[in-house]
Amino acid sequence: MAARPAEGARARPLAPAPTAAGPAAVEPAAVERGAVDPAVVEQAALEPAAAEDPPPLATTAFEPAALEPAPLDPAPSIGPGGIDTRQASPAPAQPELPMPTPAFAADPRPAPSTARRPWWVRLLGGLMAPWVELKIEPGAPAQYTASLPGPVCYVLEDYGLSNALVLERACREAGLPSPLQPLPGDPLGRKRAYLALSRRNVSTLAPLNTLTGSPPPSAKTHSESLARLLEAHREHPELDVQLVPVSIFVGRAPDKDSGWFSVLFSENWTIVGRFRRLLAIALNGRDTTVRFAPPVSVRGIIEEGLPPERTVRKLSRVLRTHFHRIRAAVIGPDLSTRRLLIDTVLASDSVKEAIADQAARDKSSLADAYKKAHTFAYEIAADYSHPVVRSASFLLTTVWNRIYRGVLVHHLEKFKQDVPGFEVVYVPCHRSHMDYLLLSYLLYTKGIVPPHIVAGVNLNLPIVGTLLRKGGAFFIRRSIRGSMLYSAVLSEYVAHLVAGGYSIEYFTEGGRSRTGRLLQPKGGMISMTVRGFLRQPTRPVLFQPVYIGYEKLMEGNSYLDELTGKAKAKESVWQLLMGIPKVLSSNYGQVVVNFGEPIRLSDMLAQHAPTWDGLPVPEDEKPKWLSDTVDALADKINVNINRAADVNPINLLALSLLSTPKHAMGESDLVELITLSQTLLAQLPYSDRVTVTPHTPEQIIAHGEEINVLTRTRHPLGDVLGVDGDKAVLLTYFRNNVLHLYTAPAWIACCFQHNRRMSRARVLELGRSVYPFLQAELFLPWTTEEFGQRLGDTIDLFVREGLLEWISDEEGGILARNAGQSDEVFRLRTIGHSLQQAFERYYIAISVLAKNGPGTLSSGELESLCHLAAQRLSLLYAPAAPEFFDKSLFRGFIQKMRELRLVWVDANGKLTFDQRLSAWAKDAKVILGRELRHTIEKISPESTRSASPPTGG
C-alpha cells in the first residue's frame, strides 16, 4: 500500500470584504483581474456590510494548500483506487504573512488522543463509528497548532450533533485538542471549544421571504458564541484564542432540485434537518471529508480596533465566504435540473432570435423551429448524477488496478491552491478515450468535483451515452457550420455553464492524436468559453492544461490501421463489448497525469485586449481582438501542456531504438543511449513541471520486455534488443510524445551529421532561423533569443559529454565531432534522428515551390504536391514515421512561411516568393546530405504533371 501523500499549508490572504456600496459597486473587470473575490461579492449581496468597513484582515488565512511533492522513488505502488500516492518529503513553504505557518514533512498521522471523553460522546460515537470513515485534510493538521501561543477554538459552518461527533473524532485521530473540552475561562459559556455560524433549524424550518428569498428578520446573521468570544478578548488582554475553520462534507454530490435519491446520498448547498442528516450519514458516511484550515488569531482581529458589532459582522462574513469557497471547490456549484437549465437556454434572447431566423429560413412555424432547438438542447445537455459518478468510481478502481500498474499524479496540490474562486476549464491533451474517465476519476477521488466534459456526438451510443451524460458529459457535433440554430443553442449552453461556475473539460485538439504529437488546436470551444465570460464577466476563468502520458495505448491497433490508410471504424456498443475482455486481460503499464501551469483568462485579455473596459460584451457583438485572443490562448494551452510532459520508460526506449535502421541494438549501446537521454533532461531542464522516470536504464529495459514492447534476441556476442513490424510504427507515437523536449540537442546533432566542423556562431544562426518553424510544429515555449541561449547551453553540455570538442577560438569557437564511426558519432546520430524528418519535410516544400516557380501554386496545391512527394520519398528510402507525409504538418509549415513573408499570396491566389527562399534552401544543405537533397529535388512534382489525368491503352 502506498504511503499517504505529504500535505502542508501556507498562509494566503483573505478575500477582501465588500464595501458599503455592495456588489453593484464592484466592476466586473476587477473581479476578472482577481482584485475582488467573486465569492465575497456573492456573500455581500446576501448580507450588506456596514458603512466604511475597514480593509480585510491582513493576518488571517483559510485556504489549506498542500506542499509540492519531491521526486518519487522508483518502486511502483498502487494506493486506493489504483492511484500511486508515493511522494517524498516536500520542501518547506515560505511564509507570506506576518503570522508564520509552519511547513512540515510527510510525518505519519499522530496517534489518536487518549483523553477521556464524555460518556455520551463514547456512546453516540460508538454507534456512529461503523457508518463513518473520515478523510482528513491536510494529512497532519496537528502541525498547525503545535507552536501556537493560545488555545484552539474550532469554527463549523453549522451546528449539529453529528457535526460535533465527526469533529471530535477527527481531532482525536489527528492529535488535535478536543473540541469538547472548554476553553480557559470558558468564554463561550458552553463548556466546549467549538462554535458554528448557523443552526440547521434556521435554514430548514424558518420560511423564506417569497419575494427576496432572504431569511426572516428573526434569523441571526452571526453567531452569538462568536460575539461572546470576541467580547472576552476585549475584557481579558492576556487571552489569545486561535480560530480553526473546519469544513465537514458527508458525500460530495452537487445538489439537485429533484430526485430523492440524490438528496439522501449527497452533501449539498442546503443546511438539512436532523432526519435527512441521519440518512445521509447512514447511506454516505463512509465518504466523509473533514478539511481543517490554518488557524486565525482572535487577538490580531481585536487589535484592529473596530467597533464590536462591526468586528463580529466582518469576521462572520469572512468565515462564511471561506466556507462557501471550500464547498464550491469540493462539491461544485449548486446545480439546477437538466430540464430547468434547458428551459433557461431556450428562453434566452439569442436562442429565441435564432429560432425565429430558422423558422423564416425553413418557411415553417415558430413551434416547429422551437421543437428543433429543443431537440438540439436535449442532445447536448449533460445530466449529472452523483450516484452514477460514485458507482463509476468503485468500478473504475477495479479496472485501473487490473489494467494499469499505477496512476501517478503530479502538481495537483499546486492546482488546488489556485482553484478556489475560479471557473475552471480543464484542457488536457487527447491521446485515448480513457482520458475522459481518468481525469474525472482522479479529480473525484482527490476531493474535487468532476467537470462537465465536452464529448463528440459519436460517443452518444445507446446505454453508453446515457452513462457518460450522467457522469457529466455533454455532446457536441464535430462540425456546427451551416446550422445557426444549433450553434446558438450550444453557445448559450456553454455560456450558462461558465456563468454558473461549473467546471468544464474539453480537448482543444478536437480529436485524439494518432501520431503522439499535439495537434493544432481548434478554437471553437475556447471561443465559446471566452464569449461566455465576456457576456457575464463576474467570475474569473482559469484554464488548466493537463498532460496525460501512457506507456501503452488501448487504441494502438486502430491507430495503426488509420495511419496505413484504412478508414476509421465507427464506434458501436458491439465494438465496445467485444473489446472489453481483451482490455481487461492486458497490461498497459503506468499512466502519468501532470497538471501544467494554469492560464488566467484575465492575463490573456490584458495582453491581447487592452482596450476592453471590463464591461459585459453583448452576444451579437464580436470585438476585433477576440480572434487573436482565442488563437493566442489556444497556442498557450498547447505550450503549457508540453511544459508538463512526462518522460516514461517507453518514451526513452523509442527515442533510442527508432534511430537505427532496423530498430535494434546491443544491450550495452541501448543502456548508454538511455543514460544520455536522461542526462540531457537533467542537465537542461525544459520546465519545472516536466517529470522523468526515476528508473535506471536496466530497469527501463526490463519494463519494456515485461509489457511486451521489446524483443530480446539471444546471441553469443551479446543480446540484441529491438522492436519489429507494427510495434516499431506504434513506438513512434511514444517518441513523438517527448520530441519537443530534445529540440535543442537534436538540432545541434543534425548540424554535425554531414559536417565534421562548424563554428558555434553558425550553429546558433541557423538554429534561430529554423526555430519559428519548429516552434509552430512542436509548441515550444521560448523566444528566438531564448532558444539561441538554450543552444549555447546545449553545446557546452555536448563538450562536457565528449560528443563535441573545441578546436579553434575563431568565430566564437570552432566545434568538431570525432571522425569515423566512433561511439560519440553514433550517439550524435541517434540524438539528431528524431528531428531529421522534420527538416526533410521543410526541404520538400521549398523544393516543390522552387521547381514550380512563383505565382504557380496555391497553398492547397502546394500542400497536396508535398504530400505526394513525401509519400514517394518514404517508398524509395527507409519507411518514415507515419506523420512524415501528414498534410496538416505541411499546412502548418506553409502557414508559417506566409507569416514570415518568405512566401505571400498574389492577386490570383497563388504563392509567390523571392531570393530569400533560395537562401533558406541553401542553408538546408548544412543539414541534409547531398544524395537525399538530390532525390527530393528529382521527385518534387510539378503542378501540370500532377494534374494530368492518367492515360491507358
UniProtKB/TrEMBL annotation:
Belongs to the GPAT/DAPAT family. Residues 1-29, 42-113 are annotated as: Disordered. It is a peripheral membrane protein. The keyword Translocase does not apply. The gene is plsB. Its EC number is 2.3.1.15. Residues 92-101 have a biased composition (Pro residues). A motif (HXXXXD motif) lies at residues 429-434. This is Glycerol-3-phosphate acyltransferase. NCBIfam families: plsB (TIGR03703), PRK04974.1 (NF003441). Residues 42-70 have a biased composition (Low complexity). One of its GO terms (cellular component) is plasma membrane. One of its GO terms (molecular function) is glycerol-3-phosphate O-acyltransferase activity. Pathway: Phospholipid metabolism; CDP-diacylglycerol biosynthesis; CDP-diacylglycerol from sn-glycerol 3-phosphate: step 1/3; Lipid metabolism.
